[in-house]
């Protein structure tokens, strides 16, 4: 947001590089601006006098290996960012995936080779999908569309479908 607002031309150039060259956004930022959004964000968080843990989280969310100490938040953000970009959730600036820092996996006790770990994590895809659909159901319930959310049911084709109760009946969310 800061880069977009205060350096609109340079940030447009950054985004152009991510799209036209397939460049990773952090690399494009360094090429055009000489720094990354992690550095700008950390500077801002520090100026706002927020706790050092948050400054470190912003600073190291793409490079958790560089942070010493027990702060897991940069690793958590790093993994969330990687998974969202891998699954094309949201827009992180271009198609180029960030490199997964194995330190982020180790921070949560995952010591296997990153590709094997990721394959295992993506095996949870249907479960994650069900969780997201359940969250959607809660949102709809809050909006008055459903009475309650029940335990997800596994269909014969393996899909896990959360169910909601509407006016005395139980329905799959996708039915
Ligand atoms: Fe980032």
Structure explained in plain terms:
With 175 residues, this protein is mainly alpha-helical. It folds into two domains: 2-122, Hypothetical protein af1432 (Orthogonal Bundle); 125-172, no CATH class. Helices cover 53% and strands 10% of the residues. The protein is built from nine helices and three strands. The protein has helices at 2-6, 8-20, 25-33, 37-47, 52-59, 73-86, 102-106, 114-122, 125-142; strands at residues 148-154, 160-166, 169-172. Strands 1-2-3 form a three-stranded antiparallel β-sheet. Helix 2 crosses helix 3 (25-33), helix 4 (37-47) runs antiparallel to helix 5 and helix 5 (52-59) packs parallel to helix 6 (73-86). Residues 37-38, 61-62 line the site of fe (ii) ion.
Key features?
175 residues; Hypothetical protein af1432; 2 domains; 3-stranded antiparallel β-sheet; 3 strands; 53% helix; binds fe (ii) ion
